[in-house]
Amino acid sequence: MYCGESRGATVDHFEPVARNPLRTFDWLNHLLACTPCNSHEKGEQFPLDADGHPLLIDPTAEDPFEHLLLTLSLGVYRPLTPKGQATIDVLGLNRRGLPNGRMHARKVVELALHAWDRAHAHARSDETQKHVQTVQDQPFADVCQSMLRQAFSPGADLVFSDAPDLLALLRRDDLRAALLR
Ligand SMILES: [Zn+2]
Predict the structure, then answer these.
(1) Measured in angstroms, how far is the CA atom of residue 40 from the centroid of ligand 1?
(2) Residues 153-178: tens digit of each pLDDT
(3) Which of 45, 80, 115, 152 has its CA 20 to 30 A from that of 130?
């Protein structure tokens, strides 16, 4: 959960127990998270807006991409809403190490997708599956999800100006079906 860097080794109470003891054993309040996100960044923080609604994106109920935009060239998250801003701040989503990790993930995904394309063109299904697996096993799954979404955004040509072949691939139905299956 949250940064997407690791597979997570701790369980975060999304709404802190100190704030709402009734949610201590609520299944959807238990989120797998890494130690830096859970302990070093979030801790007991749970900011609210002026109306008393949570200002953190709840990943069990909300689509993070409605509040956050990943700048693929920099690996940095930008807020689209106040909730996005609070989530970036509280969880340190742009902390040292994460942007570089996301930029690396973008490159790995790009290489794997081109390899998938070549294997697909020769109808080598074992190989295509291997390349899909490479993408799915990557940390920072949010990077590939962002790429697939931004391929159809109005600014897509600009976002992928350095990689028009990649953009064409990301828009292909067969590739999207293989990745999103
Ligand atoms: Zn984390």
Answers:
(1) 10
(2) 999 999 999 999 999 999 999 999 99
(3) 152
Distances (CA, A) of 146 to 29, 37, 66, 105, 124: 25, 21, 11, 11, 27
Name the residue type at position 175.
L
Residues of the chain with pLDDT under 50: none
Please give the model's pTM, rounded to 2 decimal places. Answer: 0.92
- Which amino acid, one-letter code, is at 121? A
Distance 105 CA to ligand 1 centre (A): 15
Quick one: 121 exposed, middle or buried, by C-beta within 10 A (0-12, 13-18, 19+)? exposed
Cβ–Cβ < 8 Å for 50, 25: no
77 close to 94: Cβ distance less than 8 angstroms: yes
Phi-psi region of 27 (alpha: psi -120 to 50; beta: other; left: phi over 0): alpha
Contact 37, 12 (CB under 8 A): yes
Q: Tell me if 77 sits within 8 A of 86, measured CB to CB.
A: no
CA of 33 to the centre of ligand 1 (A): 5
